[in-house]
Design brief:
The protein has 208 residues and is an alpha/beta fold. It has a single domain, classed as Alpha-Beta Barrel (TIM Barrel), CATH 3.20.20. It contains 5 helices and 9 strands, in the order βββαβαβααββββα. Strands 3-1-2-4-5-6-7 form a 7-stranded mixed beta sheet. Strand 4, helix 2 and strand 5 form a beta-alpha-beta unit. It is globular and about 40 Å long. About 3% of the residues have low confidence. Keywords: 4Fe-4S, Iron, Iron-sulfur, Metal-binding, S-adenosyl-L-methionine.
């Protein structure tokens, strides 16, 4: 496994994917093809934006108000070595919390050196494949089968209901694309679909 990262997208500052102001990194490439995934452009294993962990840290810490990182994709555990190094380096510069989404279940990751390195940096892990018929429109997990693991106590005192709280999402429209940040409610999904259908250039898409 390489320490270089193949990054699909970065959001330098948002409140839609966890407590506080967070920078979000979506990696390119995913071994799962979950039905209903709203990030189909990020499933394919293809070169996107190749970055070193140090370059990624510079990007995610550009906003001085950022207090947390959220990793999604794509599949972060396929690039666990680079993300683990980036998280470690970022924490050397600033106190941060780390949230990570993965299609793997935690049990599938244990004992694997790369994923274990990333798990050591993660405070909250949201695991499991997305199942569209189990999407109950609540919480930061995409569907009810997914689990929230609090791997450290760093977010223990933060009033965020990862399992059943209201969903938050942002649609950021750009000159030639759009970015969906967050875990969308049914209403936001509908708005996102309308944007995809009407914009002349297909938007960059992401759910979590």
């Amino acid at each position: 496994m390489s320490g270089l990262l193949n990054v699909a997208e970065i959001c330098a500052s948002t409140r839609a994917l966890g407590p506080g102001v967070r920078a979000v990194v979506w990696v390119q490439g995913c071994p799962f093809r979950c039905r209903g995934c709203v990030a189909p452009d990020w499933i394919e294993e293809r070169p996107a934006r190749v970055m070193s962990p140090g370059e990624l840290v510079d990007a995610v810490l550009a906003d001085p108000e950022v207090t947390g990182l959220t990793f999604s994709g794509g599949e972060p555990m396929e690039q666990a070595v680079g993300l683990a190094e980036a998280a470690r380096r970022a924490r050397e510069r600033r106190e941060l919390t780390v949230i990570c989404f993965t299609g793997y279940r935690l049990e599938e990751l244990r004992g694997r050196p790369g994923p274990e390195a990333l798990l050591a940096e993660v405070d909250v892990l949201i695991d499991g494949r997305y199942v569209d018929v189990l999407d109950d429109d609540v919480g930061m997990r995409g569907s009810a089968n997914q689990r929230v693991h609090r791997l450290t106590d760093r977010l223990a005192d933060v009033a965020v209901d990862f399992e059943a709280g209201p969903r938050r999402a942002e649609i950021r429209v750009r000159a030639d694309s759009a970015l969906l940040v967050g875990v969308p409610s049914a209403a936001v999904r509908g708005a996102w679909t309308r944007i995809e259908r009407t914009r002349p250039v297909p938007p960059t898409s992401k759910r979590d």
